[in-house]
Structure formats: structure tokens, C-alpha cells
């Protein structure tokens, strides 16, 4: 159509959010369908191939990311309304970074900037400490003069030491396993620090430990249910009244919507500029790249389906998969 563009998708991640969409439990539904099936993929980066006559904000060759959820990036090409796409003012040195801007990088920034008033020297604590979002939170926290505690799942033997060292090199100040947090010594280490923001991606017992560790006046933020939506977390009067804790839920779409489209575009361009200058990096613990550019369509589909199954079946700690 006259206000549409043809886009070739270059890189797209498989996010936990996408798994919620596949399970039909995420509130923002896919906007596009093919043969009656929803087209998944809420983040990614593409290149404009052709523009309709009424499109003046995009040109062939521009790199674009979704301007909203539901665009459907798990495909090789699409014809989309120009207004559903956001132009990148600068192309990142690695397109994988552009592909995680909306669902990973921007939410991490909002978690650090929006959820609590944090002054230099304050501490953030987060579980699912090897997740891509958690690793980006660490980087934004360091820019603000904040300290970070990452809680990771228990791992066998040397793997645990390797993961802890990688997180320390990224800038994490204290790394504890879930088992260590449950010990008196682990809790004492946490309570000795002024933890003012707790970011809970796991819920249940892990989230309960975050609540216990918060300093008076701290903020607990729930952003995921990796332990299962049936898990529970309890609060008592001493938490809400005695320690004056603030309890919040986080959705990246809601936080980004507080900013105008131009502000969102400016943020993403700032992120890319930081990345290209070496001030931000892709998650240290890595992305698993899945090559889906093969001439055999059936083989490409099989690779994507296999990657999705890995994402659905994975234990905590699996690397984020990127379709390239």
C-alpha cells in the first residue's frame, strides 16, 4: 500500500515473552497472521527494501526495529505499515544488539531509571542473574554509580565458578547462588548492604528472598515468573508497614509507552551509540545464534521450530537464542 514498506528481517531473538505469546497468555497479541496462524516475534531488526509513495520517513537501506509489539519478526520478509517501524539513526556494529533493543535493552534501562529513586552508592539485587535483561541492568547500574547483587541458580562444579567470574567481569559486585542466599551467612551478606531495589524474574521462594533482603524503604519489582505462575510470595505487616516497602509490577511495554515515539527512538539511538563506543556490550554469557538463512524453506522452518522447543523446554540459565 502507499503507506507501507517492504522489510527484510535480518536478526530476531527468541524471548521468554515470545513463549508467553505462543501459550496465549501474554496480553499483547500478534498483529499479523498467515494461513490463520499468528506470526510471532516481538523484537528484531530488519532492512527496508521498498517504500510506498506516501512514505517519507523511511528509505530503502534503512535499518528498522518494531515500533510496537506484535509486528511478527520470525519471518524473512514482510510488507508492513511504515508507522509500525522505528528507524535506527545509527547501525550497531553487531546487528544482534539491534535485535534485542525493545525487549531486552530498553526494559533493563527502564528498570534502573524508573522503578525507584536511586542515588549513587545504592544497591540493586536481582535473581535470574545470568539472563540477558539482568546483564543489561548491571551495565546501566554501573553508569549510575550503583552496586549490584546477582542471584544465580545452583550449578555443578566448575560451571558455577565460571559464571560467577563472568558476572564479576561484567561489573556485578556480589554473586550468590540460590542455595547461598538461603543460608544465614548469605542473608547476612545481603542485609549488610543498603539494597533499595529488588528485581524478581523468578517469583516464589527466590522472590521471597529478595523481599527479605530489602532495606527499609526499598522497592520490590515483579517482572517474571520463571518458577511458574502458580508459585506464591507472601508479605506481612512488617514488610509493608514496618519496613515501608513498595511493591510494583513491571511491564516493559507500559514503561516505554510513558515516553513519546520520538523519545523512544532517541533512547534506542543512544543505546546503539553506547554500544558502538564500547560502553555497552552484548550479554557477557553469550547469545546462541541460530542460522536460519538456508535455501531449503523446510529446513529453515525445522531449525526455527527446534530453537523454539529448546526455549520452551529449557532450564533456567539457557542462553538467549537469536535467529540470524
Automatic annotation (TrEMBL):
It catalyses: a 2,3-saturated acyl-[ACP] + NADP(+) = a (2E)-enoyl-[ACP] + NADPH + H(+). It is an enzyme of class 1 (oxidoreductase). Its main location: mitochondrion. GO terms for molecular function: enoyl-[acyl-carrier-protein] reductase (NADPH) activity. It is found in: Mitochondrion. The keyword Lipid biosynthesis applies. It comes from the Eukaryota. Belongs to the zinc-containing alcohol dehydrogenase family. Quinone oxidoreductase subfamily. This is enoyl-[acyl-carrier-protein] reductase.
